[in-house]
Specification:
The protein is mostly helical. It has helices spanning 3-8, 12-34, 42-67.
Length: 68
């Protein structure tokens, strides 16, 4: 099961909470990166992509609701 499939099983409210948590994590990662404390800089990219996945699936669910 892919990451997107796992996200599609979540409700919109759960997805919004995940988006909020990921944005907080990205904020903290950026601070760590700026102060040279971040060891795994690839995590910035993965968190950004995860945020994009969550937002895409939220939008898909919104459009599904509008079509019905």
């Amino acid at each position: 099961m892919s990451a997107a499939d796992k996200l599609r099983e979540m409700t919109i409210e759960e997805l919004r909470k995940k988006d909020k948590d990921l944005r907080k994590e990205l904020f903290n990662l950026r601070f760590q990166h700026a102060t040279h404390q971040l060891e795994n800089t690839a995590r910035l990219r993965t968190v950004r992509r995860e945020i994009a996945r969550v937002n895409t699936i939220i939008r898909e669910k919104q459009l599904e609701g509008a079509e019905v």
